[in-house]
């Protein structure tokens, strides 16, 4: 009994629609999402390409536990790689309520990373950025919990992100408190 080639294609498409994204589509989606967040973050970076932002950031009173700039530059690519791997793994999973919740939280967290840099560095809204950092800890933890219900390795890649956000919240809150002239 031979099958018609069109029937095989239709069955394959139906199986794919029940499954997750193809490897190429998942990779493209991850690249697009994290790329957009990186563009916003880069636009607000306190580096030599943004001298006013850099001068402002350097003038802030910061606690003694503030890492050197090089640490921030080293940590974020690692965290974003973890988010990329986690997002990719989730997007490859079959669509379900649990998977879709985890993906939505992944999208929210990646958007919030770029949004935080806008608040802190460009708009200089220290209080809002501290509150946003705290919200990111909560949404990051929710992402890890939701991802764990779908794919434990994806969840594990988000744990360092949440830990760093906890530290970043402490740091942002101290900077806000130690710079009353900068309150907005």
Short account of what is shown:
With 184 residues, this protein is mostly helical. Helices cover 78% and strands 0% of the residues.
Q: How would you describe this structure to a colleague?
A:
It contains 7 helices and no strands. 26% of the residues are buried. The radius of gyration is 20 Å and the shape is elongated. The termini are far apart. With 184 residues, it is mainly α.
Span between termini: 74 Å
Helicity level, as a percent range?
over 70%
Based on helices, strands and strand pairing, what is the structural class? Answer: mainly alpha
* Beta-strand share of residues: under 5%
Q: Report the uncertain regions.
A: 1-17
Oligomeric form: single chain
Q: For the residues shown, what is the average pLDDT?
A: 89
Helices and strands, in N-to-C order?
A: HHHHHHH
Radius of gyration over alpha carbons?
20 Å
Task: Enumerate how many helices there are, as a single number.
Answer: 7
**How many beta-strand runs?**
0
Largest beta-sheet details: none
The geometry reads as elongated
Spell out the blueprint of helices and strands.
Layout: H1 5-18, H2 23-43, H3 51-59, H4 69-92, H5 97-122, H6 126-148, H7 152-178
Helix pairs in contact: 2-4, 2-5, 4-5, 4-7, 5-6, 6-7
Features:
184 residues, mainly alpha, 7 helices, 78% helix, 0% strand, elongated, disordered N terminus
């Amino acid at each position: 009994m031979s099958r018609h080639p069109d029937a095989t294609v239709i069955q394959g498409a139906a199986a794919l629609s029940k499954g997750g994204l193809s490897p190429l589509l998942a990779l493209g989606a991850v690249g697009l999402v994290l790329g957009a967040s990186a563009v916003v973050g880069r636009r607000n970076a306190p580096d030599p390409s943004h001298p006013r932002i850099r001068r402002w950031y350097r003038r802030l009173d910061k606690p003694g536990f503030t890492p050197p700039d090089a640490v921030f530059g080293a940590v974020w690519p690692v965290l974003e790689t973890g988010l990329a791997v986690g997002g990719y793994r989730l997007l490859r999973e079959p669509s379900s309520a649990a998977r879709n919740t985890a993906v939505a939280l992944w999208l929210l967290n990646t958007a919030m990373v770029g949004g935080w840099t806008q608040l802190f560095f460009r708009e200089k809204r220290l209080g809002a950025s501290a509150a946003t950092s705290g919200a990111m800890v909560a949404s990051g933890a929710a992402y890890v919990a939701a991802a764990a219900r779908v794919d434990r390795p994806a969840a594990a890649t988000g744990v360092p992100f949440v830990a760093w956000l906890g530290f970043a919240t402490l740091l942002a809150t101290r900077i806000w408190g130690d710079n009353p002239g900068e309150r907005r």
